[in-house]
Amino acid sequence: MKRVAIIGAGPAGMMAAATAAQEGATVTLLEKMDRPGRKLAITGKGRCNITAAVDQDQLIKGYPGNGRFLYSVFNELSNFDLIDLFNQEGLETKVERGNRVFPLCDDAKQVVDILSKRARRLGVKLLTGTTVKRVKIVEGIVTGLVSDQGDLPAEAIIICTGGLSYPGTGSTGDGYTWAAQAGHTIIEPRPGLVPLTVSESWVGELQGLSLKNVKASSYTEKGKRINEDFGEMLFTHFGLSGPIILSMSHDIGKELQQNGKTVIVKIDLKPALTEDKLDSRLLNDIEKYSRKMFKNALNDLLPQKMIPVIIGLSGIDPEKECHQITRAERLGLVTLLKNLTLTVNGTRPIAEAIVTAGGIATREINPKTMESRLVKGLFFAGEVIDVDGYTGGYNLQAAFSTGYVAGKYAAQEE
After folding, report:
1. Domain boundary at 309, 330, 347, which?
2. What is the mean predicted confidence (pLDDT) over 351-363?
3. Short-list 2, 51, 11, CA closest to 31
4. pLDDT at 258
5. Residue 278 sits in a domain of what CATH number?
6. How far is residue 305's CA from residue 279's CA, in Å, rounded to a whole number?
């Protein structure tokens, strides 16, 4: 019976372990933390966005980092296969805004419990509190591993150690070291889904303010558009966060890393209105509040917390009565509301990122089996690979599917 050792009991590792055991292998799952699924238990603000209920083409588009690499694994375990698997295990699911799939119970810990119980039921031996020191490779073939509990012989090893985000949950980059020692190229890890820091000091005045139904667009220092998104965002004391900012951060972070010191982000606060229609709206408000001071005339248009900032940026005297506002001032305000501009000067640290971009180069991994092209019997799954997706369940889906495929093929006898 083939012996398979899996390092890392996150979503990829637990899925790989159960699948390999189901295929008939003798499976040992090693986790250095005191329990499995530490990071999984806090995903989706503790609710666990399992996957996205979209067709395969749309699913692939959810991975700005090497999405095409995932075609084969999604053919083996699609997002709908994953939903069926959880349903069969007794976890009911629901689809929310943006096609996000959550457990009906809204409890990520139940997802962890189901995965770990399933693995144990199928005969997986789980060793928690166990630190792997190195992977043993002889003449290009895996022979086992060395841990602080001793040697463990194995004909196949699956590395599922995650990236560098949320290191307190056990993701500290160990897998990169073992892969590099095996001869693999490591694409420099960087924050994937991560908040952005900005140069403008006024952003701190908006800390905690969430805006819905806005459009954000980003541009290089030379003015070339990088990306854009529509939805919800959040101001923080250091800059920008929220769903659309996190999704945009992959490409923005790449631009910052490769080409420039800053990126410009423009926020359209009123994307449903053209400039002409917004101007008409402002004219109506000015007439409505013609005898009031400008600072008291924007309550119908903007959140209260935002009004002092917009007034300051507009350059219009806040004590000026509305009927005295000039056409040039009004048109300037329209431009400001449609193009609130911020200078992004960096990202928050990788430890604060939801997911890590970068990792083991996909060209050195067989996409049909997740086996190393360099070392026989060495497999990879999950965030340790240079694949990352947007928010909305994409990263967990990639972890589950790559884990499933790695477990299936690692268990196969020659």
Report:
1. 347
2. 92
3. 11
4. 86
5. 1.10.8.50
6. 22
